[in-house]
Structures are given as C-alpha cells and as structure tokens.
Amino acid sequence: MGVQVPPPALLIIKKLEVFIEELPKNAVSIKFILTTKSYLKDFKKQVNKYAQKAVLPGFRPGTVPPELIKAKYGKSLLYDLINKKKNKERLATEEIEFIIQGYTDGSIPDYQMSAFLMAVCLNGMDHEETAALTVAMAHSGDVLDLSQINGVKVDKHSTGGVGDKTSLVLSPMVAALGIPVAKMSGRGLGHTGGTIDKLESFVGFSTTITTEQFISNVNRIKMAIVGQTANLAPADKKIYALRDVTATVDNISLIASSIMSKKIASGSDVIVLDVKTGSGAFMKSFEDSLALAKEMVQIGTIAGRKTYAVITDMNQPLGNAVGNTLEVIEAIDTLNGNGPKDLLEVSITLASYMLVGAGIANTLEEATSMLYKTIEDKSALNKLAEFITAQGGNSDAVYHTELFEKASIAEEIAAPTDGFVTYIHTDEVGMTSLILGGGRETKDSVIDLSVGIKIHKKLGDSVIKGESLATLYANDNNKLKEAKQRLLNAYVIGNEKPNKPQHVYAVVTKDGVLQM
Predict the structure, then answer these.
(1) Beta partners for 163?
(2) What is the arithmetic mean of pLDDT over 360-369?
(3) Would you call 275 helix, strand, or coil by DSSP?
(4) How far, CA to CA in Å, does 133 sit from each of 38, 299, 324?
(5) 464-487 pLDDT tens trace
(6) How far is CA 434 from the centre of its chain?
(7) How do residues 180-195 score in pLDDT, each as one tens digit?
(8) How far apart are CA 211 and CA 206, in angstroms?
(9) Host H or E run for residue 455
(10) Are residues 185 and 195 in contact, defined by beta-carbon separation less than 8 angstroms?
(11) Known catalytic residue: 236?
C-alpha cells in the first residue's frame, strides 16, 4: 500500500480486502477510509492516522456495510478483544457494545463469549467499563418508555433472599402517597421467592397486562407490577445462562450489570436497591455486599438515575413467613400494623429512600413519618386492594385473609435440645420451602402457592427441647418428610446466646456510605 500501517489496523484492512470481490463490479477504486459503526471507533483512529493514503480497489467512502463486517469478521475482532482483556487492558465503550450486540444477534458464538467472560472474571472491569456493559445490555432489547406516566417514577429491586416480601409492603405505602410505582418483577428460582408468584395467590390476578394498561394503572392508582417482558435486556438472559454453566457467576461487574441492565431498561427515574447479605443471600459477606452496592450505585448514577443501595440482613428469613401465600398474608398483616418488626423496618427504610429520591420528602425522618401514617390511616392497605382489583384479582382477600387457599397439612418442628438459636442456614430454610413445592428447581417448575414455613424461633431466641422452631405447611407427606429434616439441619442450637443481628447495615449513595 506504500504506507506503514500498525498491526491492528493492518489486520482489519487485510480482512476487508478478502471480500472486495463481493462488492459491485462497478465500484470506484479510491482512497480507503474505514466508516463503520461506532464500535470500530478505535480501529478508525488508527486507520485514519496511518492509512489515509492507502488505496484499496472496490471501495467508496461510507459504502462498507457494517453488518457484513460484523457477520464475516466478528469472531476475529472478538479474538482481539478477548486478548485485550486477558492482558488486563481497558475496553472502550464501542468495543463493549460490539461484543453485546454480536452475542445478542448470534454472530458471536458461545465459546468466544465464555472466554471473554472468564477474562472479565480474572481481570475485572473498571466503573466505566461496567457501566458501558450495563447500558449495552439494557439496550439490547426493549427499553420501557414511561414518559407518559406523570411524576417521578420509582422502583425497588432486591438481590434476593428468603421471606423477602418487601415489595408487597412498601409499594402500596409509596403509591398511597401519590408517587408512581411502575415495577417489573420476576418469578422465583431456587430458594428465593418472586413477587410475581406471590401476587398470583390472589385469584384472578394478572401480571401480563398490556403496556397501555400498565401506564394507565400507574397514572390512575399510582401502582402497577408486571412480569418482565421476553425482550427486556435479552443480552442479560443469554449471558446469565452462559455464566451459570461456565463458572463465571461470581464477579461484581457481571452481577451488577445483570441487575442494573434490567432496572435501566425498565425506565424508572429512581432506583432503590435492597442488597442482601448473610447466609441466605447471594453475597454472604458484608464486604462483598458493600462492593456490589457501590458498583450498582455507580452504574445507576452514570446512567442518569437516582440510585440508592440499602444493605440489609439475610442471616435469617425476613419476617416469619416463607412461602408465597404465607408471605402475602404477612405483608397484609404488616399493612394492618401487626407485622414483624424486621420486615417493617426494612420496608420503611427502603421506601424512605424512594420518597427522598422522588422529592416528596426532604429528609429520611420526614419520609418515615409519612410512611407510618399510611399504615395508621389504612391508606396503604386500601391501595393494595385497589391495585389487586386493577389487575384482575379478587381484593376481598386483602381484608379477609381466610379466603386464601390453605395447605392441607400443618406440622410443628420441635427443637431437639435446650439452648439458644446461634445460627440459621437461611438458604436451607429457603430450600425447605422449595422441597415442599413452594419454589422452582427449574424455570418450568409448577409451584404450590399454599405451602411454606412459619418461623417461630430466630437468632438469639431461647429454646426448650420439644418447643416448636417452626410450622411446616404441606400438601404432600413425602415432601413433608424430607422438608422436616432439611429444616432441622438449618438450625444450630448452642449454649451461648448470640447478639441479634441488625436489620439494616448501611446505605450507599453517590456521595458515599452511611453506616447504620
């Protein structure tokens, strides 16, 4: 070509030469300028710098189809990007977009994406890379447009736990104060429960309403909760499935981008994250939970969302009920002012940041006072009933919980010895509910909404041999037999009384960490 070209640019130019013959025969031979999509921006810079005088037959400026480049040479380009991350180099936003677009449309194969994910696990990503990954995943499919909803839209997300029914408590409280809660939720998988499953305890309730109905309901009653659409962040679905079988799950950047891509695609202005920590959480240690919280707040801030992360305890089930219908009843009890202290405290804390983020309250103290009032005057309870009716459910059960379907068997689990509850393997409590039929082993599993557990003894409580630790609710004796042993194994009873855990440990905002 009569010009010195550096290896990366030369690689691209040589690959482009290969398909010159496929271009129209009458194409004019003039100066080659690479004009592809933004994800080749770095290559453009090098080509423009060293090869503007290069002449390649068959090219006109701007006529090289980006789709052709990606389809024919995506694998080779990704090889270079895998190598770059393997060597601990930083990826440009355009390069990350190229990877996500290519994997979503199928032009990048699983084996190369697996190698890239492993390189990320081993060498990490900085904040800007993680934010770019998140935004690219969020825009890989539908992005919900909530501009037709009046006011500041708020949403809350939990990283998953056992007995976690805070959405059922805080959503009607916040909506009762006139703040639009436009929420997309998932179903449960494994030992963690899903809000959508719990809501289906109400006969007739539907989470598959149209976008028009969703927007109308939020404008009219300030609250709607629907299941995630199939095309919401499809890149995340593909990547998560791959991570699950390639030992690339436990990386902060990949976890944070998976969670936040769906939240950003869901369209809310304010995002409050409930980051669980402890034996029943994905993140077992406070340090890991704090790192994840910081990363997600950073991502949300870069993406232009007001984002808060509250680190809460999951060293024991939240509240006393574990299982879909049982948790709905406990949420209703809480809105009636009769709920467990830990569930109320966590719900109020999360909801307070939703109010502050929406600008309805100036301080957390003011927000807390407003939220407690919705319980005292029953406006939150009535809002829950209004919401259930709006989505086709029978709201009579909000006021008469005896209308919910009940399990046919109830059996007490007795303490095997005297002492104190010193430790609870909380994930095992969740697995006990799954064994009873209250959770999913696979995404296609059919669950029994009526089964579950009521916890009677929690951390620090004294127990006497033969006293009930919990009640199991079942519809199958064989499942009950297995579940009984699983729950007993989840409890550790010792001679020394431990300190009861905090319910809220810390709050992360864009300005820093507030230890509680």
Answers:
(1) none
(2) 97
(3) strand
(4) 15, 10, 34
(5) 999 999 999 999 999 999 999 999
(6) 21
(7) 999 988 766 555 568 8
(8) 13
(9) strand 452-455
(10) yes
(11) yes
pLDDT at residue 444, rounded to an integer? 66
Q: Considering 85, 139, 153, 243, which one is annotated as catalytic?
A: 243
CA–CA distance, 318 with 279 (Å, rounded to integer): 12
From 158, 253, 258, 266, the catalytic residue:
258
Backbone angles phi, psi at 299, to 5 degrees: -60, -50
Residues 288-341 pLDDT 10s: 999 999 999 999 999 999 999 999 999 999 999 999 999 999 999 999 999 999
pLDDT digits over 193-244, tens only?
688 889 999 999 998 888 899 999 999 999 999 887 768 889 998 998 899 8
Query: Is 305 a catalytic site residue?
Result: no
Which one is catalytic: 262, 383, 440, 486? 262
Work out the burial of residue 257: count CB atoms within 10 Å of its CB; fewer than 13 is exposed, 13-18 middle, 19 or more buried: buried
Separation of CA 301 from chain center: 17
Residues in the chain: 516
3-state secondary structure string across 63-74 = CCCHHHHHHHHH
Nearest-CA neighbor of 411 among 475, 465, 329, 463? 475
pLDDT of residue 192: 59
Q: Tell me which residue of 346, 356, 491 sits closest to 432, measured CA to CA.
A: 491
Which residues are CB-contacts of 260 (< 8 A; sequence separation ≥ 6)?
Answer: 134, 138, 271, 296, 299, 300, 303
CA dihedral (387, 388, 389, 392) positive or negative:
positive
Tens digits of per-residue pLDDT, 371-410? 999 999 999 999 999 999 999 999 999 999 999 999 999 9
> For residue 411, what are the contacts with CB-CB under 8 A and spacing of at least 6?
471, 472, 474, 480, 484
- Which letter, b or e, does each residue of 61-89 get, where b requires 16 or more Cβ atoms within 10 Å of its Cβ? eeebeeeebbebbbeebbeebbebbeeee
- How far apart, in Å, are the Cα atoms of 351 and each of 214, 280, 345, 414, 440? 21, 22, 10, 37, 29
494 conformational bin, left if phi > 0, alpha if psi -120 to 50, beta if neither: beta
Per-residue confidence band for 515, with pLDDT thresholds at 50, 70 and 90: confident
CA distance 79 to 15: 14
Catalytic site includes residue 157: yes
Burial of 308 (0-12, 13-18, 19+ CB in 10 A): buried
Query: H-helix or E-strand containing 390?
Result: helix 379-390
Give me 418's structure tokens.
């005297």
Q: Which of 157, 187, 425, 457 is an active site residue?
A: 157
Condensed to tens digits (0 to 9), the pLDDT of residues 106-144 reads 888 999 999 999 999 999 999 999 999 999 999 998 888
CA distances from 507 to 311, 350, 401, 429 (A): 6, 10, 34, 27
